[in-house]
TrEMBL record:
<protein>
    <recommendedName>
        <fullName>Leishmanolysin-like peptidase</fullName>
    </recommendedName>
</protein>
<dbReference type="GO" id="GO:0006508">
    <property type="term" value="P:proteolysis"/>
</dbReference>
<comment type="similarity">
    <text>Belongs to the peptidase M8 family.</text>
</comment>
<dbReference type="GO" id="GO:0005737">
    <property type="term" value="C:cytoplasm"/>
</dbReference>
<dbReference type="InterPro" id="IPR001577">
    <property type="entry name" value="Peptidase_M8"/>
</dbReference>
<dbReference type="GO" id="GO:0004222">
    <property type="term" value="F:metalloendopeptidase activity"/>
</dbReference>
<dbReference type="GO" id="GO:0046872">
    <property type="term" value="F:metal ion binding"/>
</dbReference>
<keyword id="KW-0479">Metal-binding</keyword>
<keyword id="KW-0862">Zinc</keyword>
<keyword id="KW-0482">Metalloprotease</keyword>
<keyword id="KW-0645">Protease</keyword>
<dbReference type="GO" id="GO:0007155">
    <property type="term" value="P:cell adhesion"/>
</dbReference>
<keyword id="KW-0378">Hydrolase</keyword>
<keyword id="KW-0732">Signal</keyword>
<feature type="signal peptide">
    <location>
        <begin position="1"/>
        <end position="17"/>
    </location>
</feature>
<feature type="binding site">
    <location>
        <position position="235"/>
    </location>
    <ligand>
        <name>Zn(2+)</name>
    </ligand>
</feature>
<dbReference type="GO" id="GO:0016020">
    <property type="term" value="C:membrane"/>
</dbReference>
Length: 415
């Protein structure tokens, strides 16, 4: 039977009640993507299969549910199925069987070409329908390869991981119960001249597992919540979380699925029971690499970058606070993952860069409904450009040309 081929069940005929590796099928009525994009889609499904353990869903979906919630699928007679193992065209009527055996199914839907054209930074969107069913759309015209032909295909791997995580419910399932809801908070952002203006901080819901991890990562016991991208609460805040996989912007040089995201997705329930379990052994090598903001402390989380820099220079002069420019970075060195080369950190070349934080409306993905959108932009180093008036007031001194995945190391002794 074709589905045995698609999923190779022999590997995990799972015992009822024991979580098993999650099998995701991506179904498209629109044919294949560019070949390396399609390959990275498959690699991302392999990653989910290794990283996620799930119980069989107690309320599987049927083809009728699909036709009802994704009506465009009524018009296809055959579809392309991608699993972590295979890619194959099947007849639409056979999708029913696939829905029965997959743990989660993602349907690729048409993207509105006007939206893609209006917003060249919009790359993809995904949203849960009824778990275990989700949709994903992709602005093919906005493929970042067109602007940056040397872009590593790893970027697409991160893109699909990011989107499918949303499809699984990350930052998307809205629960108004007081148990999981984090109220927002007012604070004052002070500029370098000391003038302050009021800002709002929003926190992700479902953070009770993640907050513990974040407190120890940043070294701040009084951290109040996991800073979100704004009122939508779909993402981790870009300013606070940098190259984490689930921030609003993907970095060209790689994005990390951290213990903080592990905590968020494990707390994203489908019904009463915890559904997703992360295989910690599998994700540890990646999650442990996450170093952005490590030990920056409460001043980083609660004050502006200008105050953070000043306070740290005074109280902890030995701590490097790259990517922020500071005399603290003098005599500090960094290296890149997988390389032994050590570079001197220099903040001679410094630029005031706009901070992407907790804006409630952005130029990209300012859509009001539950759908999630991912914006991206990059040149050699990642440059952010969301244009809102508010953002212009918030700029931070950032070291130019510092790759995002640097790791601070001891400088070799001269001599
Ligand atoms: C999986 O489902 C079984 C049966 O519904 C339940 O007893 C068990 O606790 C679940 N396991 C996990 C880890 O959620
Ligand atoms: C978790 O991942 C490790 C490393 O990849 C693997 O050896 C182990 O079998 C996995 N555990 C489960 C329960 O799948
Ligand atoms: C901090 O730096 C000073 C001067 O470079 C050095 O003497 C001191 O040992 C350092 N302290 C720590 C804790 O590394």
């Amino acid at each position: 039977m074709i589905f045995l081929l698609l999923f190779n069940f022999l590997c995990y005929f799972s015992v009822n009640g024991t979580p098993h590796p999650m099998k995701i099928a991506v179904i498209s009525g629109y044919g294949t993507l560019d070949s390396d994009m399609q390959t990275e889609l498959q690699n991302s499904l392999k990653w989910f299969q290794s990283a996620f353990l799930v119980n069989k869903s107690s309320n599987p979906v049927t083809i009728k549910d699909v036709f009802q919630s994704i009506p465009e699928y009524q018009k296809f007679s055959s579809v392309l199925v991608q699993t972590h193992l295979h890619r194959q065209n099947i007849k639409l009527q056979d999708v029913q069987q696939l829905l029965e055996v997959a743990d989660f199914t993602v349907f690729v839907i048409a993207q509105d070409p006007r939206r893609c054209a209006r917003d060249p930074d919009l790359l993809a969107e995904a949203m849960p329908i009824v778990p275990p069913l989700a949709t994903m759309s992709i602005c093919l015209k906005n493929n970042p390869r067109h602007r940056n032909p040397s872009l590593d295909s790893r970027f697409f791997f991160d893109l699909f991981r990011h989107e499918i995580l949303h499809g699984l419910g990350y930052g998307m399932i809205i629960d108004k119960s007081s148990l999981t809801h984090r109220p927002s908070e007012k604070y004052i952002w002070r500029n370098s001249n000391g003038i302050g203006h009021p800002e709002m901080r929003q926190f992700l819901d479902f953070d009770d597992f993640a907050l513990k991890k974040a407190k120890s990562h940043f070294g701040c016991d009084k951290m109040k919540g996991i800073d979100a991208d704004g009122e939508r609460k779909n993402h981790l805040n870009e300013y606070i979380f940098g190259n984490e996989l689930m921030t609003t912007h993907l970095e060209a040089s790689g994005n990390i699925f951290s213990w903080i995201s592990v905590g968020i997705i494990e707390r994203t329930f489908n019904g009463k029971e915890q559904w997703y379990h992360i295989n910690r052994t599998f994700v540890a090598p990646e999650a442990n690499q996450y170093s952005y903001g490590r030990n920056f402390g409460c001043d980083f989380l609660q004050r502006s970058c200008h105050e953070f820099i000043k306070i740290t220079e005074k109280l902890r002069p030995n701590m490097s606070i790259a990517p922020f420019c500071s005399k603290n970075n003098r005599n500090k060195c960094f290296k890149l993952p997988g390389s032994e080369l050590v570079y001197k950190m220099s903040d001679k070349e410094c630029e005031m860069r706009r901070v992407i934080g907790d804006e409630s409306v952005s130029s990209c993905g300012g859509n009001e409904h539950k759908s999630h959108s991912l914006c991206f932009l990059m040149t050699q180093s990642t440059i952010y450009h969301l244009q809102t008036d508010k953002q212009q007031q918030r700029r931070c001194p950032i070291i130019k040309h510092l790759p995002v995945n640097y790791e601070v190391v001891q400088c070799p002794r001269a001599g």
